[in-house]
Amino acid sequence: MEPIRLVHVVAYVDVWSSNRTENYSKAFTKQLLDMGAKVSKTFNKEVTHVVFKEGHVGTWNKAQKTGVKLVSVLWVEK
């Protein structure tokens, strides 16, 4: 089966451990890049998806306000 290519995705990644001491964004950034997505270091108007888990409330609010798709780490893994 052909792997899924995320060529039209520009993602901003905000993924932390449940106690918010470990930033896991790098691992998901690499996975997204390997699947053909672009990853933005900043949340800007190019961003189409926010990969979010235990992230910053400001990131969540901005995604809600701008209508950007908020997705979980499970979306990346699937």
From TrEMBL:
Pfam families: PTCB-BRCT
Species this chain originates from: Sphenodon punctatus
Cross-referenced InterPro entries: BRCT_dom (IPR001357), BRCT_dom_sf (IPR036420), Microcephalin-like (IPR022047)
UniProt xrefs under PROSITE patterns: BRCT
Domain BRCT, chain residue ranges per copy: 30-78
CDD domains in UniProt: BRCT_microcephalin_rpt1
Biological-process GO terms, alphabetical: mitotic cell cycle
Highest taxon, organism lineage: Eukaryota
Protein name: BRCT domain-containing protein
